[in-house]
Amino acid sequence: MTDNQTVQAYTDAWTQSIESISELVAPLPADAWNRATECPGWSVRDVVSHVIAFESELLGDPRPIHSLPSDLRHVTDEFTRYMELPVDKRRCHTSPEMTGELEYTIIRRSRALRTARHEPTDLVRWPAGPFTRDIPYHELLRLRVFDVWVHEQDLRRALGEPGNLDSAAALIARDHLVAGLPKVVAKLAGAPAGSTVGFDVTGPVEFLRTVRVDGTGHGTVDDSISLAPDVQFTLGWETYVRLACGRGRPGPVKAEGDEELAARILANFAVTP
């Protein structure tokens, strides 16, 4: 695809996923908004608040003036504090207020995306507290697809409404998560030079990937098959997503080979903040 086609593909995937969130929460009774999700410390309301807040900030809306409580255990650093502030601000909002603001935000953001004059490689602001930086426009869109889809899945699991595990956004999320595997294996898990680690993922999104650690300790990932990897993982797609996003205790993971290395990889699997 050309760069402009990639931008359109990201925009379409974002639209499908965020509209799915809107459809999912629109009929919820008031008590369902307080249901816990696997996103640490966040309820259904909080996840929706985060989606609203981030898209609003990209629209140029000012951040709310608000003091956070001091007893939020999942707020551990400046990044989580930055993300938590607009979420906590909305914890008193009613379900009609939440659905109304979400729908309005989607309308505004969709219009902004349709009328945007950015070239794919133009640098734009990525608002993330201490990690705020300028990134290419196409990368911002890709990251928004990933974030919205992951939170869509948080909501679906919490509400018992599975779906969209193989959507266009899911495939974009797959590529984003797979790109983090070399860091997980080589850096965080400390796999020794010369190691190979295979990942056989099954389910709605299937793929085979191998991480190879070279003589300098640098990891790379490809879709070739290693005949005798040091560790071979076999797991379902949803389990892979939950592991890579630090969500709860996922389903079964089959690990063959070096047990100690496998345990280190699983302990460091999360690639999201």
From TrEMBL:
One matching Pfam family: MDMPI_C
InterPro entries the UniProt entry points to: DinB/YfiT-like, Maleyloyr_isom, MDMPI_C-term_domain, MDMPI_metal-binding
MDMPI C-terminal domain span: 180-264
Domain Mycothiol-dependent maleylpyruvate isomerase metal-binding: 15-156
Molecular function, one GO term: metal ion binding
NCBIfam families: maleylpyruvate isomerase family mycothiol-dependent enzyme (TIGR03083)
Protein name: Mycothiol-dependent maleylpyruvate isomerase metal-binding domain-containing protein
Native source species: Kitasatospora indigofera
Species lineage: Bacteria, Bacillati, Actinomycetota, Actinomycetes, Kitasatosporales
